[in-house]
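Hey,
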Amino acid sequence: MNLKKIVFLGLTTMALFGSCGKEEKSVATKENNNIVLRVSWWGGEDRHKKTIEAIKLFEQAHPNITVKAEYGGWQGWQEKITTQMAGGMAADLMQVNWNWINIFSKDGNGFYDLNQLSSTLDLTQYEQKLLEQCSVNGKLNALPYGVAGRVFLYNKTSFDKAGLEVPTSFKEIKEASVIMKERLGADYFPFEADYYGALLLMLYKLEQETGKPFIVDNKVAYTEEQLKNAADFYLDLVNTRTIPSLEDRAAAGNVQLDQHPSWIIGKFGGTYEWDSASLKWRDSLQEGEQLVVGDYPTDLGPYNSGFTKISMAFAINKDTKYPKETAELLNFIVSNDDAVKALDVSRGIPANKKAVATLEKANLLDPFMLEANNKVISFAGNGIHPLFEHKQLHTELKDIVDNLGYKQITSEEFAKQVLATTNNFLEMNK
């Protein structure tokens, strides 16, 4: 057996490892005159259980189709799918990250063009701009499941204790810092941000001022001076003790943001976090603390600048033998009343309008989470570039923000490094 064949067989074994179905085949098969489809996704136990329930409902409605479920946790999932895609072993229907379209289908031919299945898929239930974000060269590569974005969340109880209203601008946030410290203690802050939150606050300011997202035409859309000003904006929030420094935040150890002791007991009064995680932030507060969804500050410029992205999507294998049946499965999952109720919000609030109406009618949408998602949609900026959350770029930008936050570099150096690092990365990954 030659080396090439050994490597291929090894990769195939890796792709099969951890699958929850029987032996995988490259595309749908026909067994005993029944069509067999494969569907893959990642997530936690709640998502697994509810997705399997929706699949069973589909099988009951389509007795000639058997659906094999392949699922697992996020850790290593992208590597698994990469191996499957390379070996022609991917499932017929795949839950995908939005940026995977750029990874696996740069020319639009990596996944099945869902426009060709519009007689089966009800595309009218989606905002056109969301479909466009999942399209490459006019080919619809995936169906967006939902939209996630950052919202301003405030512990109303903390502001009440200080005799303050929940802030609606950065000016009011800074003013609240002075009063909170006078009335409640020096370790109270009206707002907090980790390194990623700090970066997103800077981008929030830049997009609100310019109307441009971070990356346009495969390069950073901002000038060095604009980036410096954004860094100064963040440093001013730190230096005025409006938000804790990265060093202050690290004093509690390497803990998740919602588990930070100062957040739990109300000493951090606000944050800029994912709407899809809003219930986690609310429920992590100690008893007696009330979390509310705040307004987006608009005192930095005239443009909407909420950070948003397609949370995840579903794509169909370009090599599936049964595109129509796979499309029927997809359409069932995202719009059938019983399936939608079974899935609940295990993948967040859906982008499908019919699904949202179904969940609302069944009282399955938490009003707090729905309010957060509605605000995301109402103040959404221009979205993000597919490569913005690439692991390599994310790591490099984290180092730069950390160095700024720990005062290892100046705002001028920060601007130069962000420009050079990001533009070099984009050039290398065209």
